[in-house]
Design goal:
Blueprint (H helix, E strand, L loop, with lengths): L1 H20 L3 H26 L7 H8 L1 H23 L3 H12 L5 H14 L3 H11 L1 H7 L3 H10 L2 E2 L4 E2 L1 H4 L2 H16 L2 H8 L1 H18 L1
Antiparallel strand pairs: 1-2
Length: 221
C-alpha cells in the first residue's frame, strides 16, 4: 500500500513537470497538490505498520478520502521529517539537545518548547534551518490560517473562476516562478521518504524494518 501511494505521488510529480515545461502552470500546480495528497497517505500507512493506527477503521477511511485531513497529515509528517534533517545538520545541536532534555524532564511545557525551538532555528544559519523556516512561515502558516487553503488553490489551478469582480483562468492565477518553486518543494517532500520505500521493496530488509517500526511504535506510546 505504502509503495503504491509513493509511486503514484512520484508519477504526479513527473506529470506536473511535463505540464510546467509546456507553460501550463495552473494545471501543474493542481497535480502537485494531488501528489501531496497521495504522499500523505504513506504516513497513514506507516502509522498502520507501527501500530499507532489499528486497522482501516472508519476514521482511517475518512482520512484516506478527505482532502483537508490528508493535507494536515502530510504537512505534519513533512515538518517532522524537516526537523530530523535540521537536528542532523544544525549549527546548534547542543542547544537543541539541551532543550529536548528540559522538555523530557518536564521543566518546560510543549508550548514553551515550540517557541524556544523556533527561536533556535531562527538563529541557525544552516540550509536545513532556512528550509524549515520557509515552510513554517509559508505553506504551514497559510494552511493554519485556512484549512482549505491547499484545496482552494488546487481548484484554482484546474478551473476558470467566475465571480462578481472578475473571471480568472488558471493561467491568470499561477506564475512560472511560483510553480517552479512549488515543484522543487514537492520534489523534496516526495523524495524525503525514498529510503524507507526502497527498504519496503526488499522482502528481507522490509521484514526487519517493519519489526523495528512496530517496536518503536510500542515504545512511543
Amino acid at each position: 500500500m505504502i509503495v503504491k501511494y509513493h509511486a503514484n505521488a512520484l508519477q504526479f510529480l513527473k506529470d506536473a513537470e511535463i505540464l510546467f515545461n509546456n507553460a501550463s502552470y495552473g494545471h501543474s500546480y493542481a497535480l502537485l497538490v494531488l501528489g501531496f495528497e497521495e504522499w500523505a497517505k504513506t504516513s497513514i500507512g506507516f502509522e498502520l505498520l507501527t501500530g499507532f493506527r489499528k486497522g482501516i477503521d472508519m476514521e482511517t477511511r475518512d482520512l484516506l478520502k478527505e482532502h483537508t485531513l490528508k493535507h494536515e497529515i502530510g504537512l505534519a509528517s513533512f515538518m517532522y521529517i524537516l526537523r530530523i534533517i535540521l537536528l542532523e545538520e544544525s549549527e546548534m545541536k547542543t542547544e537543541h539537545q539541551q532543550l529536548g532534555k528540559r522538555l523530557k524532564k518536564g521543566e518546560i511545557t510543549e508550548k514553551n518548547f515550540e517557541e524556544e525551538f523556533l527561536r533556535l532555528v531562527q538563529q541557525d544559519k544552516s540550509n536545513a534551518a532556512k528550509t524549515y523556516l520557509r515552510f513554517h512561515q509559508g505553506a504551514l502558516k497559510d494552511w493554519s490560517n485556512n484549512r482549505r487553503f491547499l484545496n482552494d488553490r488546487k481548484l484554482s489551478g484546474l478551473y476558470v473562476d467566475v465571480n462578481k469582480r472578475s473571471i480568472a483562468s488558471p493561467q491568470d492565477v499561477f506564475s512560472e516562478e511560483e510553480v517552479k518553486q512549488d515543484l522543487l518543494d514537492f520534489k523534496m517532500i516526495v523524495t524525503s521518504t525514498n529510503g524507507f520505500i526502497e527498504i519496503l521493496k526488499d522482502p528481507q530488509r522490509s521484514e526487519r524494518f517493519i519489526e523495528e517500526l512496530v517496536q518503536w511504535g510500542k515504545a512511543s506510546k
